[in-house]
Amino acid sequence: MMLPKLTDVAKEAGVSPATVDRVLHDRSGVSARMRARVMTAARQIGYIQDDEAAAAARPVRLAALLPAGTNAFIDELAGLLAEEASRRDAVSLRIERSASLDGADLSERLLALEGRVEGVAVVAVDHPRVREALRRLAAAGVQVVTLASDIPGAPRANYVGIDNGQAGRLAGLLIGRFLGPGATGKVALCAGTLAYRGHQEREMGFRQVLAEDFPDLEILELRESREDRARAEEETRTLLSQNPDLAAIYNAGGATVGIAQALQSAGRAREVVFVAHDATPEKTALLLDGTLDAVIDQHARAEAREALDRLAADIRGEARPPATIRLQLILRENLPAP
User: Are residues 192 and 224 in contact, defined by beta-carbon separation less than 8 angstroms?
Assistant: First the structure.
């Protein structure tokens, strides 16, 4: 007897598979009446087990390996992973923070998880030793998902995160439109580290849009903050002193607060167009005071939820379609609720 699929639930409830996916993963955009209809259909055809059977679901042991440092998005992601794990039956999660962006350190920490967990979610730098560690884990039967930044050449079960190339293109379009038709001037491009493939993809998308649509804007040499606020602040101070005609800054990585502090100290916070990533309370304050013009957010809770659900399903051998993590553009006028 074949197990029911998500499409079977959609057929039984008379709705689209996308609506079923939103209901089953507790996403917004579905009415209470429709949620009840979908859940009833799912139980009737056996897609959802009853409470007694669900409580007996096979326990899974997971780990999340995230970088240490001052990146507020990573701190938020760690908290949400812990919160989401606590809401799931038979799921245990250990969260570890790697000491640096160094591939050797990260690979050692990954290998140390072998035999201790069945699945790993990792924000990983793209490095030969990291790829080899992921191959070792896969050979040992450990399921892996990459979070926020992908490593396509590595044997991972899935990537959970936004399309970073699309995010970079959006940043380029925003800066070009903010500066206005026929704008000229210098634009600074910053990244946390190009060891993250996601930051490379954002840079590529950004450069593509400026070359295609805003060719009179000059992109300055890329600067890497190494996700360090003090370094980002010092780099930006130098940037401003060397380029008094700087028109805009795009920060493709972390350490946005350091860049903001340099702009504020130089008295140019509301003069230079500034676009960054990831909605956090600190960036909300920067949007409100005009230092930041726009934030491209990747929805940390959705990433945490999908990473845990994906790993648990793969370990248990359950069929589950991957969910798309959509980016969101946040301005001062549409700040999300805390």
Answer: yes
Distance from C-alpha of 239 to C-alpha of 245, rounded to nearest angstrom: 10
* pLDDT tens digits, 229-262: 999 999 999 999 999 999 999 999 999 999 999 9
Distance CA 308, CA 84 (A): 8
| 319-325 CB contacts, 8 Å cutoff, 24+ apart | 319/3, 319/5, 320/6, 321/6, 321/17, 321/21, 322/158, 323/21, 323/25, 325/160, 325/161, 325/162, 325/298, 325/299
How many CB atoms neighbour CB 15 within 10 A?
A: 18
- CB-CB contact of 148 with 201 (8 Å): no
Burial environment of residue 215 by CB neighbours within 10 A (0 to 12, 13 to 18, 19 or more)? exposed
> Rounded to 5 degrees, what are φ and ψ at 23?
-65, -50
Spell out the domains of the chain, with CATH numbers in brackets: 6-48 (no CATH), 58-161+300-325 (3.40.50.2300), 164-297 (3.40.50.2300)
* Residues forming beta bridges with residue 146, ordered by sequence position: 122, 159
| Per-residue model confidence as pLDDT tens digits over 51-91 | 444 444 689 999 999 998 878 899 999 999 999 999 888 99
Torsion of CA 330, 333, 334, 336, to 10 degrees: 90
User: Over the stretch 188-198, which tens digit does the pLDDT of each residue have?
Assistant: 999 988 889 99
Q: Which of 186, 160, 136 is nearest to 301 (CA)?
A: 160
Q: Report d(CA 64, CA 97) in Å as an integer.
A: 8
DSSP assignment letter at 25: T
- What is the C-alpha end-to-end distance of the chain, expressed in Å? 46
Distance CA 207, CA 214 (A): 10
Can you spell out the DSSP letters for 48-91?
A: S--HHHHHTSPPEEEEEEEE-SS-HHHHHHHHHHHHHHHTSTTE
